[in-house]
Amino acid sequence: TEVNIVKLCLDVVTVFNGAYNRSIRVNRKEQEEILVKANKDQLKQVVYSLIDNACKYSEAEIIVTISVVDKNVAIAIQDFGPGISKEEQAKIFDRFYRVDKARNRDNGGTGLGLSIAKSIVEAHKGKLTVSSNIAEGSTFTVILPIVIDH
Length: 150
Ligand code: ATP
Fold this sequence. Notes:
It contains 5 helices and 7 strands. The N and C termini lie close together (12 Å). It is of the alpha+beta class. It has helices at residues 5-19, 40-57, 86-89, 101-104, 113-123; strands at 2-4, 24-28, 35-37, 62-69, 72-79, 127-133, 137-145. The strands form 2 sheets. A 5-stranded mixed sheet has the order 2-4-5-7-6. Strands 1-3 form a two-stranded antiparallel ribbon. α1 crosses α2 (40-57) and α2 runs antiparallel to α5. The structure holds adenosine-5'-triphosphate.
């Protein structure tokens, strides 16, 4: 089915804004509607996991930016948390991998969120990438092909 990625992101953010006292800002430069061919529940889970991580690992505001790049949509989830070293960036998408297990123990994660998110995105012919600097924060970006003509 065709899923409007703008609405899907806004719906997920609404859940977080209602449940936690966090400031999540959504930037969208383009249309009201950006369609992708997708399993809606699975994509919701991806966006949910990435925002959930941003909430768990940072205190400040979270920025979600939706933009169109060529024939793809990019959903960038940016936080201003501790960041992830280049070495760890190579491993965080592995199943059960968690950075600094002692530090994270209280967060009660399983280390599965990102590996599941990555396989869902790849099953949709997309990409999930991270860009991060220690002490500055992290940006996780989901790239998915847009439905062009319908
Ligand atoms: P869960 O499976 O419940 O999400 P988790 O958060 O430990 O548990 P992943 O989502 O797979 O598992 O993340 C793997 C690791 O990557 C985390 O343990 C954390 O160390 C690191 N990580 C993920 N997102 C961020 C982020 N936004 N900022 C800093 N570190 C992060």
